[in-house]
Amino acid sequence: MTSDALLSVENLHAWYGESKALHGMNFTVRPGELVTLIGRNGAGKSTTLRSIMGIVGKRTGSIRFDGQELIGKRTYQIARAGIAYCPEERAIFSSLNVSENLTLPPVLKPGGIADSDLLAQFPNLQRRLKSPGTKLSGGEQQMLAIARILRTGARFLLLDEPSEGLAPVVVKEIGEQILRLKAQGFTILLVEQNLQFARRVADRHVVVENGVVVDTLDAETLRTDMDRVKHYLGV
Amino acid sequence: MFDHISIQLLAGQLLIGLINGSFYAMLSLGLAIIFGLIHVVNFAHGAQYMLGAFVALLLLNVLGIPYWGALFIAPVIVGAFGLLMERTILRPLRGLDPLYSLLATFASVLIIEGLMRLEFGSSGLPYRSPMPGGINLGFMFLPWYRGWVVVFSLAVCLGTWLLIEKTKLGAYLRAANERPEIVESFGINVPRMMSLTYAFGVGLAGLGGVLAAPIYQVSPSMGSNLMIVIFAVVVIGGMGSILGAILTGYLIGIVEGLTKVFYPEGSNLAIFVIMILALILRPNGLFSAPEKSR
Lengths: 235, 294
Description:
heterodimer, A: alpha/beta, Rossmann fold, 6-stranded mixed sheet, 10 helices, 10 strands, globular, B: mainly alpha, 11 helices, about 70% helix
């Protein structure tokens, strides 16, 4: 474990019912870093985020965040500790309009982005405030899913495949938003399968295979040693 | 064919239909909230309604607290009882097939009703009307209390609907119905919210019981007699549809009243004929929400 880590995951095991998904994950994230979890489908990347957030059925090991142990805590307690989670499928609530979706998460800590600033940062949402949340395009839904967690005051973001299923021009826009968040001081753990996207935004890449971390690559390696990356991802 | 029907008979049955509809709406509203938001088929709803009536009766007879005090105190007591039930019986079953909670609440009905029968007997006990007298409308006599029940239940139904549809708390509840784990990831204590939602639905049943006490005899079986109709109302309106439960409650009460005028022999059957038609033509209910996207 690195002493200056904001998040430190050690020997993390997780299960969905009887099925074991993580087999001893180890990695750290330092304050202000943008780290991606990369790997093949089913490697355990999303499960890692869900485990950090306390959403999987059972987990063992250690997840320390800002000095607090998260194993044993409920999901809402983890959120109150300062972690925000944006799931892969975006989870925009169909019974709420855009405005209600955006303002649903409560302000838990000082330092959250004010609603007016959020709308300035995500201007597409401003025009669709009264629309049902699920009537937005995929890109707009992704923007909404990211925007709403920024108001809580959490400074550590878990983003699960924000580029999934989006057109290249929208992926570029999402990438710019994520870089803007990094510049604003957010620490981000990002699950990503889109290597171009990951390469553009991240400081470090944690490679996950069969529920364990098999390698950690710095941004330069991901740019220069694609053969190594392709070996892991099977591309 | 209907030339023997007088305006007095029609208006009288319409009023009775509206009063019955008020109880149907309030009870099915509580049931719909509980099912729609926490996915529990609360078979104990009728027993909790009965408890509301008994608590009002005991508050009056033992502590001397009149109807108007009981109107606020009894739902809180019954709601607290609901909270206890949720923590001890329903919470351990959360995440399992809803059949388990249905059976658990059904078992609690048998226990609650059995205990009440042991203590108070089977025959009904009277509760004096807090608003005696009434007004002659020309075509019918309207007892003040029955008018109050209609107005008050309308206000409660409207208030509850507004709470769920137009407030932040309601937004949390609706969102938690879709994705509880995501709402919890926003820092909301969803398990506690679920418990309080159940208690609120049970409190509504208790409130219905207090309203019913001066009209019907207070007896251990008063809830069971209603529950079959209430479940039919919820099914017709759409399981979990708040607005559906309210509108269908009043609609069924009125249809039942009108059937008594035009075809009295069929008045008990009308609601179930409607339920069968609704299940065939709109299996998700007349006011069901569209399928939730995930």
